[in-house]
Amino acid sequence: MKRIKTLSTRNLKNSLKTGGCGECQTSCQSACKTSCGVANQQCEKCK
Amino acid sequence: MIHQYKLNGYNIVLDVFSGAVHSVDDLAYDIIAMFEGSTEDEIVETMLGKYAYDTEIDRSEILDCIADVRELKESGQLFTEDEYERHACDFKNKSCAVKALCLHVAHTCNLSCEYCFAAQGKYHGERAIMSFETGKQALEFLIANSGNQHYLEVDFFGGEPLMNWDVVKQLVAYARSREAETGKRFRFTLTTNGVLVDDDVIEFANREMNNVVMSLDGRPEIHDALRKTPNGKGSYDIIVPKFQKFAKARGDREYYVRGTYTHRNVEFTEDIFHMADLGFTELSMEPVVCAPDDPYALTEDDLPILFEQYEILAEEMIKRKKEGRGFTFYHYMIDLESGPCIYKRISGCGSGTEYLAVTPWGELYPCHQFVGDPKYSMGNVWDGVINIGLRDKFKRCNAYARPDCAECWAKLYCSGGCAANAYHATGDITGTYEYGCELFRKRMECAIMIKVAESEE
Known about the structure:
The complex is a heterodimer of chains A (about 45) and B (about 450).
Chain A: E1 4-6, H1 15-18
Chain B: E1 2-7, E2 10-15, E3 20-24, H1 26-35, H2 40-50, H3 59-74, H4 85-94, E4 100-107, E5 128-129, H5 132-144, E6 151-158, H6 165-182, E7 185-192, H7 199-208, E8 209-215, H8 220-226, H9 236-250, E9 254-261, H10 269-277, E10 282-287, H11 302-322, E11 328-329, H12 342-346, E12 355-358, E13 363-365, E14 379-380, E15 384-385, H13 388-395, H14 411-414, H15 419-426, H16 434-456
Parallel strand pairs in B: 4-6, 4-12, 6-7, 7-8, 8-9, 9-10, 10-11
Antiparallel strand pairs in B: 1-2, 2-3, 4-5, 12-13, 13-14, 14-15
Helix pairs in contact in B: 1-3, 2-3, 5-6, 11-16
């Protein structure tokens, strides 16, 4: 597309079928301890 | 739902419910903004007027761009509908498995940091250290309650966990001894202020700890103003050489040098750059958690400065990466291709359900930030979770449980935010700590902008 560049991203709707194993790291456990974010948690299956 | 913003020369469009990220030019940006509420003719006429100065933009060009936007919508990459609310309820009704414990092995500390949410390690209670027997039972509780989870996380926390180092080592050895039989794999984290770091700690941690979190607030005068020894002196000179040795010895293993910024250093990028200049490459810096009337509490007037600081940080990180001296900032880590699935994104932070804190006496709390608040005592490592009503409340605590999150574009990046922050700000874990939300949204905009910038290289 001439005016729109789409980055490669994980399709969240598709992950309804493949996700949910729960093996990923707990959000708060890694480095913050005082706020919450899940965006920086990597999927264990995708590693 | 979409979210559009301009940052560092980029026009960025996020499609919230598919996770798609688009980098667009000005015309596409404006067309997308009008697309859902206007007819094609209205869009064309508006754009012809707005871009009358641009000879390259004519009716045909605008129609082509509208067609592209329509194609993205039809392929589920723009204006995607929210289909996840039902799953948020289903998911939380399913599992009670615990997969992570924050082990408070020492409710005591050898520093006396003024802003400590743990009240200098004591959590408003008595000083105490965890016995091996209590810690062992905590590990058994975790194994027994972890269902089918393979990876189990244990964070050695405090207070200062190195003040109970022998027990930490014994607990690691015990956990390892249980792995083969149980089919579990433990991942350990050590969070330390650095005072007692020595060669034994470094060697053991590098062998056994998946992650080490080292507390440093940045520049000497900033760090020493709040992170003091019990006799009131700053701790910077004691800990920095130890952390430098520790981080170097980590090699490829994970670590973070983690700071706290307050009202006294709202220009916190100076502290992050100082950490980077000390040779640390894995950095985290958090807004202080404290009562609003504390002298170092962040204020509304600080907010625009903090927004600017996050932008400065993002731009400097792009620059330093190009120069070959890049560093990682925890809150700008975002994996667009291999990041969390939708279940992770809608299930909340996990506190009170899959993540629990354990006091030195074996008492269970929803997370480390609730420790010491009797209303939030959940049970103990011998009897398990007794307060089922409280656990159920935490199970329902996600982005879809919070009314304020309904219209927020960032809810699938934060999963509804920190329950403890919400509780302290509003008195209810399903409230929202709006100040924290404002900072979080800014961080996400910057993190995604960095990804867009990298994609343009």
